[in-house]
Design goal:
Blueprint lengths: L12 E6 L11 H14 L1 E3 L2 E4 L9 H9 L4 E7 L7 E4 L1 E4 L4 H10 L2 E4 L2 H9 L5 E5 L2 E5 L9 H10 L4 E3 L4 H6 L3 E5 L4 H10 L8 E4 L3 E3 L2 E3 H4 L5 H14 L2 E4 L3 E3 L2 E3 L3 E4 L2
Parallel strand pairs: 3-4, 13-18
Antiparallel strand pairs: 1-4, 2-14, 5-12, 6-10, 6-11, 7-9, 8-9, 8-11, 15-18, 16-17
Length: 276
């Protein structure tokens, strides 16, 4: 099944995969998985397909849906297969912002992350974006860069060190950075992951920390609800696929423009809303 009839759309195929064949690229937060398990049990459905790269089955989003369905002993999972290297699909980063941090925390981070003060925050960000430094800490009007020589997926271990020491933080987008700094937050600034790193993480099992990547997937299919019975293996693969195909074919669809709200979240990309 593919999207069709829309101008410049992203092609996707909604189907089932064996849940063991889907490869997450990020770690999960156990609390979030536990809450999702309860929700799936209550509603009896998987809401929204997990977006996967059609060539590798690496999941681009939906890590907690994968984890929750595994906990429920599902045999298959509903996915939307896309060509990850389609230029319309973008991968961005989440930055971490901490409010009401102590000087003791900053001092500890200086030691653990081997931070060096630089003349200004712009230089700190340029050092990270160019790959000269694995990360930076921005606070007030000051910038610090890590002097550790870590590249590739190794640099994400430093994010784990930061997370261990900051129990609560906000995940923010680049466009929100100035606002959070003005409001007194300390920000962990990391280099943007690229698509090759996302696939490498999924294929190698060396996962990113939770909330590392942020994907923009135009014409993302949403509000498609797959009954749990189809996922638990009560039907064989062919029967389950035929039921899913009939279900999707019968559903009305509507295109929502960028910055629409769905399920309490604002999406930057267009959405294909099933059962509007």
């Amino acid at each position: 099944m593919s999207s069709n009839g829309w101008t410049d759309q992203l092609s996707f195929t909604i189907t089932f995969l064996k849940i063991s064949d889907v490869k997450p690229h990020e770690e999960i937060i156990e609390k979030n998985t536990s809450e999702l398990v309860k929700a799936i049990k209550k509603d009896g459905v998987q809401i929204d397909p997990v977006i996967v790269d059609k060539n590798t089955n690496v999941a681009l989003d939906g890590m907690h849906r994968i984890s929750a369905l595994k906990a429920l002993e599902a045999k298959r999972i509903m996915v939307a297969k896309v060509d990850y290297f389609d230029e319309k699909i973008k991968v961005y980063r989440w930055l971490r912002a901490v409010k009401n941090y102590s000087s003791a925390l900053l001092d500890e981070l200086k030691v653990v992350l081997e931070l060096r003060k630089v003349p200004n925050q712009l230089e700190a960000m340029r050092s990270v974006d160019s790959g000269k430094s694995p990360l930076a800490i921005l606070e007030g009007t000051t910038g610090y860069v890590s002097t550790l020589s870590l590249t590739g997926l190794e640099r994400f271990n430093l994010i784990r060190e930061f997370d261990k020491r900051t129990k609560e933080h906000a995940e923010i987008m680049d466009k929100e950075l100035d606002q959070y700094l003005r409001n007194g937050y300390m920000v962990l600034y990391v280099k943007k992951p690229d698509k090759e790193e996302v696939l490498k993480a999924g294929l190698s099992g060396i996962l990113f920390p939770p909330k590392s990547t942020r994907h923009i997937i135009p014409f993302r299919p949403v509000n498609l609800r797959c009954p749990l019975d189809l996922l638990l293996g009560k039907l064989n693969d062919q029967e389950a696929s035929e039921v899913l195909a009939r279900m999707i074919e019968s559903m009305p669809k509507k295109i929502l423009p960028p910055n629409s709200v769905y399920a309490g979240r604002v999406y930057e990309e267009e959405l294909v809303l099933y059962n509007p």
